[in-house]
Every structure is written in structure tokens, then in C-alpha cells.
Amino acid sequence: MGARLIVLAVIVVLVLVFVLQNQAPCSVRFLWWRSEVPTIALLIATFISGIIVGWVLAAFGRRQGRGEEKKREADSART
User: Which structural domain, as residue segments, surrounds residue 57?
Assistant: First the structure.
């Protein structure tokens, strides 16, 4: 657990340094929406979105693993 925490801390520090060095406003277009937003807000939103997507995919993978394990147990019980 210690190594994971260190890696996470290093990633967070690197992201913060990157965000703080890129504070100029940028133009964002999505479908019909267009806006000038600070780059810092865009980078933080992207980082948080990535964390959420990673968490959801990891949870889905764990759920899939449990389903396969139950299937193997059921197959073992039949034989």
C-alpha cells in the first residue's frame, strides 16, 4: 500500500505543477457550446474525469471477476 500511495502522490504533484504552469485561458468547443475557460479548470476537470472513469472500469472489472468465479464454483459443484 505504501508504494501505491507514493506513486499516487507523485502523479498528483506532477498534475498540479502542470496545471499551475498552464493557466492561460483557452477556447473550448463541444457540440453547439463554445466558451473561453481557464486552462486550469479544463485540466482539473479532465483529471477528475479520468479518475472517475478509471474507478468505474476497475469496479466493473472486479464485478466481472466475481461473476466468473461464481460460475466456476457452480460448474465445480455440478461435477
Answer: 2-78
